[in-house]
Amino acid sequence: MAAWCWDYWVAEALLKLESLKVMRSLRPIHLIRPESNQTESDELEFYDGLRQWDRASVEVQISETTFQKWLQDIPSSGDDTVIGNGEDDDGAGPCGGKFKKLLIFSGNDYLGLSSHPTVIKAAVKAAQLHGMGPRGSALICGYTNYHRLLESALADLKKKEDCLLCPTGFAANMALITAVGSVGLLLAEGGKPKRDERVAIFSDALNHASIIDGIRLAEKQGSLVNIVYRHCDMVHLNSLLSSCTMKKKVVVTDSLFSMDGDFAPIVELVKLRRKHGFLLAIDDAHATLVCGKTGGGAAEKFKCENDVDICIGTLSKASGCHGGFIACSKKWKQLIQSRGRSFIFSTSTPVPIAAAAHAAVNVAKQETWRRKAIWNRVLEFRAMTRIPITSPIISLIVGSEVKALEASRLRIALSAVHTRDDLRKLVTALSECINFEEIGFNCKNYSSKL
Ligand SMILES: Cc1ncc(COP(=O)(O)O)c(C=O)c1O
């Protein structure tokens, strides 16, 4: 049996929706842009290396009060942020509050695009012309030519037929999984699906919360059966697939795991997909624009874009903006926009954000040095610590395994705009409290290959 039964099932599900008269359609609104002699690509400015504005995503300041609370592990209500305006060389703010400059190693702005002039200009120009744009769901009045342009750029990036923008990456996963489950509901013979008519979804044990919540919701609706396989364990997955008698099978996994920083074994997943004929969906939130020659993500990195059926992403990480998306076939898009409730019943992305994200995707494609820089930082961190990390997300198990209860996890995220000197500072600071040799030994998930 082939995964391409899924093409048939989705087409059948769409026919059912049509017969029930509940197919939902986008209602594109055309926002007029004033005539200009410049084409859009003339307005995009690209740079060949780090500039001072790039540092905005990694250099921040926090109030001394907040800093002290952090040190003592005292919860903050966030009120400390309104003390004074910061700045001043002596650390004193205009209202008397004192501030500390910090380097961030926990953000997801992997390429530093949130402060790129081309991204800022796109947002400003769209805001000046249209404000936030029409406020409403994409099915009512919230979908414009700006959204369409961004969807096309993302479909191209992911080498998929089409793409659907969602309010966030969290909403994208929820929408996809409820739509997947709806196939079981719509094609069930007697209304309520029997167990074998439901969708069997195989989910990695360490998948993101939004995948888990999507599955829980669909399970409650009685549309799918959740089968969790051990993290990245393809022997386990193969055996679960082999013993599953349900026809409609889906495997869903983070491509680059958000907490552990390891990659899903995509090449092995593709082999299993050929053997068992499941639909393969990957959450490429952390790999989009970071991995692959053109920034296409983990599937491009592992050269199997054609074997991944659906790719979920977020615009809130390497794109430096906000929002989520699902790159897929046109038929899947129709199904998700008709059944994905977190897409249907939520206001669409503001136009300036859609314009900025479109600019960011273009910048990330052109400024290839940003991708090189982030992977160079990965190599440098490996060389400095001898911990065989494989991605910009680094998960360090701090504390001894013997005292398991005291052991905790430290998550570090590297960025293209960190410098080698930033890394040296981080490693020096960390070595005062942790032993890298011991940590390297504890990090079972890392492989020695990049
Ligand atoms: C793997 C993964 N998927 C989805 C999301 C959700 O994305 P967003 O922040 O756009 O809702 C995140 C982000 O936190 C993530 O790490």
Percent of residues in helices: 25-40%
Shape descriptor: globular
* Bound ions, cofactors and other small molecules, one mention each: pyridoxal-5'-phosphate
Order of helix and strand elements from N to C terminus = HHEHEHHEHEHEHEHEHEEHHHHEEHH
Mean pLDDT: 91
Number of strands: 11
Largest sheet: 7 strands, mixed
Q: Kindly, what is the distance between the CA atoms of the first and last residues, rounded to a whole number of angstroms?
A: 35 Å
Question: What is the gyration radius calculated from CA atoms?
Answer: 23 Å
Low-confidence stretches: none
Tally of individual helices = 16
In the sheet with the most strands, the strands line up as 3-9-8-7-6-4-5
- What structural class should be given to the helix and strand makeup? alpha/beta
Pfam family, one: Aminotran_1_2
Family: Belongs to the class-II pyridoxal-phosphate-dependent aminotransferase family. BioF subfamily.
Protein name: 8-amino-7-oxononanoate synthase isoform X3
Keywords: Pyridoxal phosphate, Transferase
